[in-house]
Amino acid sequence: MKNIGINVNTTKDPDKKMLNFIKKTIHSIDKSVKVKVYENCDGLDKDESTKLDVIIVLGGDGTILNTSKHILDSNTPILGVNIGHLGFLAQVEVNSIENALKKLFNGNYVIEERNMIQCIYDDGNGPKTYDGLNDVVLYKGIKSRIQRYDVYINENFYNTFSGDGIIVSTSTGSTGYNLSAGGPIIYPSLDILCLTPMYSQFLTSRTIVLDNRCCITIAVRKNFKNIFLSIDGQEWIEVNGPNTIEVRRSKNKRKFIKFDDNNYFDTLKDKINFKAKEGEVYEGN
User: Which of 8, 239, 9 lies closest to 122, judged by CA?
Assistant: First the structure.
């Protein structure tokens, strides 16, 4: 590790205490390391990331998703440090930064690859492609009435959903917006696409989990206003219906630094606040 980038969300670390602590800790381990700081992704892109061995991200999941967007097809791994809210994507909590950095420099980690998602949308000026790590969301605005969405899978008609919108998530994104809408938690290494209708009028409208080779087409039927397309919650694009959005697995993958003592199920218990404890016996009502 000779070149390290640190991307900090300045709203989470306004006085730079955490940033300065990490820089000091890095140089206490190896004084020769070059550290470059980026604030809110300013100046950080794919070309810049190729000069770095790792990018340490200070913030929450939103900051990690924004970093991923800026370095889209880069192979530089991300190490997330959670100074935000939930922090599902972050490997390191504030109280374990020192230990994590020592492991990083000693090579006691693995590179974990997460699948990404891609959508194609034609706004009238030609098709545009967007990639995300978590999800693609098609959602009606607050003032818009219930919308109808026709869903096709591999060009075969699947169903029509009447509701607020449609979420297509990766396994990584299953604990985000998908979970809030009643979708399942999916183990992050599974290479799938998860389609969840949002707050449908019909109780039979449920999530379907699809093979990663599937191509999903969502057709907005009428020319309603205030229909929006979101990729990882990082940008909201107004959809001029009627129109179609095509969603599939991206060819890009996002690399993360992962330490052996990070257990996915411990993360679920900590972040989602599961109440059950190991060894606890269920005694009924």
Answer: 239
- pTM higher than the cut 0.70: yes
- pLDDT tens digits for range 4-59: 999 999 999 999 999 999 999 999 999 999 999 999 999 999 999 999 999 999 99
> pLDDT tens digits, residue range 162-187?
888 999 999 999 999 999 999 999 99
Residue 176, annotated as binding a ligand? yes
The response to whether 284 counts as a known ligand-binding position is no
Please give the CATH architecture assigned to the domain spanning 3-109+259-272: 3-Layer(aba) Sandwich (3.40)
145 labeled binding residue: yes
- Asked if 143 and 226 touch (Cβ cutoff 8 Å), the reply is yes
164 appears as a binding residue in the annotation: yes
Residue 87 CB partners (closer than 8 Å, separation 6+): 60, 61, 80, 93, 271
Is 116-251 a CATH 3.40.1190.20 domain?
A: no
CB count within 10 Å of CB 264 equals 12
The reply, when asked if residue 62 is annotated as ligand binding, is yes
Most confident of 150-159, 192-201, 241-250: 150-159
Return the domain boundaries, the chain. 3-109+259-272, 116-251
* Catalytic center residues: 61
What is the identity of the amino acid at 283? E
Q: Which residue, among 145, 177, 157, has the nearest Cα to 219 in the 3D structure?
A: 157
From the number of C-beta atoms within 10 Å of its C-beta (0-12, 13-18, 19+), residue 214 rates as middle
pLDDT at 273 over 90: no
CB crowding 115-135: b at 16 or more within 10 Å, else e: bbbbbebeeeeeeeebbbbbb
